[in-house]
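Hi support team,

I've been running sequence recovery on a batch of backbones for a student project. Most finish fine, but this one hangs at about 90% for roughly twenty minutes before it completes. I'm not sure whether the input is malformed or the queue is just slow. I've pasted the structure tokens below so you can try to reproduce it. Let me know if you need the job ID as well.

Thanks,
M.K.
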């Protein structure tokens, strides 16, 4: 697929070519673990499916094509498996600077698992650029950014983080899950590795778990491909097929998610029972100008604080009819999540308080339904 096409065209055709034997327009699901060899080591390019599988190959080709600036991509069994592969390139004693409000599971992976191997994770507020500059040293091997962040929707300046990373010889990792490849292209802003929880917008239908890494450098790809092969956290061919199918509608889905989210954010901002709304597309967002500069759309995620006590929050959740109370995001259906008790329960309490993730905060993943129905549902639940 040529990179000259518009993204909505690219996603429809990404990774897929008619199958040579039959002309099948969709890539077949190659459910095979191994491949017959003519002589030892003489084969058609495939020897074992943990290393290579034609359906996964098409999936990875599609991932390369949809993330602008990417030359290579790798698919993993989950977003966290993809993150783990990056960490497995580090050595004991290395340092990682992480934005302080990463997804709870990412923080847990760092604090509870990889800290055991003497990797030093420094969680900092990355909206304070000087603090990041002061924290970066030649021992810093990765600067790890999520933007917008989960769930407080902070927007981090990717270009500036790239300059800081370069100044100390570190790699810049950007978790692009919330923006999706449609609305933000970190590799074009100096990131070395983009990560996605494909479970979210790339999959888009709340029916699969998956992860992706995209890079613009062959040597870095080779290093990560070795980890993928040696550690083995690969998706199954069936899931690769499903992701290929999902990617085709990513463009139109994201357009609708973002349109609906803007309507919902404006509705909530003007509602007397709502205290704060966190959505990068609102002029009241502290980094609205930065969001406008580095994103081409504001995506479908927002958070807000409800006025009143925790009982009021529980009552509101019970009354919702369209929004389902569930973890995860990025599917076609609208979801509501309580970060403090659900997705971010593993974040240390003190940090959660500092970030403002309290009992009254709710996070919405805005789906692709008709926005008037979403507003009506929120309105009746708030009444
Ligand atoms: O769940 P998994 O596919 O392993 O992806 C982890 C992950 C990574 N990065 C971000 C920004 C994420 O939001 C997630 C997963 N998040 C949720 C399950 C959630 O509800 O926030």
């Amino acid at each position: 697929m040529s990179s000259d096409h518009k993204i909505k065209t690219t996603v429809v055709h990404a990774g897929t070519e008619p199958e040579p034997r039959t002309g099948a327009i969709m890539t077949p699901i190659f459910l095979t673990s191994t491949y017959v060899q003519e002589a030892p080591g003489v084969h058609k390019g495939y020897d074992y499916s943990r290393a290579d599988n034609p359906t996964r190959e098409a999936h990875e080709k599609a991932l390369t094509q949809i993330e602008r600036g990417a030359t290579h991509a790798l698919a993993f069994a989950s977003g966290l498996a993809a993150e783990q592969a990056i960490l497995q390139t580090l050595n004991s004693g290395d340092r990682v600077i992480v934005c302080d409000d990463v997804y709870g599971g990412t923080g847990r992976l760092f604090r509870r698992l990889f800290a055991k191997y003497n990797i030093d994770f420094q969680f900092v507020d990355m909206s304070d650029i000087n603090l990041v500059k002061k924290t970066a040293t030649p021992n810093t091997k990765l600067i790890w950014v999520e933007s917008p962040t989960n769930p407080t929707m902070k927007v981090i300046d990717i270009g500036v983080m790239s300059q800081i990373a370069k100044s100390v010889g570190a790699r810049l990792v950007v978790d692009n899950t919330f923006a999706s490849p449609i609305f933000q292209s970190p590799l074009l802003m100096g990131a070395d590795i983009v990560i996605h929880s494909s479970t979210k917008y790339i999959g888009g239908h709340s029916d699969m778990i998956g992860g992706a890494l995209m890079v613009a450098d062959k040597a870095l790809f080779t290093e990560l491909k070795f980890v993928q092969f040696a550690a083995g956290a690969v998706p199954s061919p069936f899931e690769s097929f499903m992701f290929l199918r999902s990617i085709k509608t990513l463009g139109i889905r994201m357009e609708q998610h973002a349109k609906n989210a803007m309507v919902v954010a404006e509705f909530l901002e003007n509602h007397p029972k709502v205290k704060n709304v966190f959505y990068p597309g609102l002029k009241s967002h502290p980094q609205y100008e930065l969001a406008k500069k580095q994103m081409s759309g504001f995506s479908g995620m927002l958070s807000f604080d409800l006025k009143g006590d925790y009982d009021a929050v529980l009552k509101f959740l019970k009354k919702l009819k369209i929004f389902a109370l569930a973890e995860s995001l990025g599917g076609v259906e609208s979801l509501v999540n309580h970060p403090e008790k659900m997705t971010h329960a593993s974040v240390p309490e003190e940090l959660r308080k500092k970030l403002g993730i309290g009992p009254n905060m709710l996070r919405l993943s805005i789906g692709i339904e008709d926005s008037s129905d979403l507003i009506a549902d929120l309105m009746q639940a708030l009444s």
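--
Follow-up from support: It reproduced on our side and the slowdown came from queue contention, not your input. The chain has a mean pLDDT of 97. No action needed from you.
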